[in-house]
Specification:
The chain has helices at residues 2-9, 18-30, and strands at 34-39, 45-50, 57-61. The chain is α+β, with helices and mostly antiparallel strands. The protein has one domain. The radius of gyration is 11 Å and the shape is globular. The mean pLDDT is 96.
């Protein structure tokens, strides 16, 4: 999971559609929520979400989103 957090912080959004990746790129410039999707080694999918004000980053299983 640590690698996913670093990828998220670096702007590598993982397994999102192009529309969501573009929304993240826009959010970096204009302010907004950031969303990334990754897979654990056992293929469990999870999201990393950073709030608009950058105060909190949360990791959720896709079933919790």
């Amino acid at each position: 999971m640590r690698t996913a957090i670093w990828r998220h912080l670096g702007g590598e959004w993982g397994d999102l559609c192009d529309e969501d990746k573009t929304a993240n790129d826009d959010a970096l410039r204009e302010g907004g929520r950031l969303l990334s999707k990754y897979h654990a080694p056992d293929r469990t999918a999870f999201y990393v979400i950073t709030e608009c004000d950058r105060s909190v980053t949360t990791v959720l299983l896709t079933s919790e989103y």
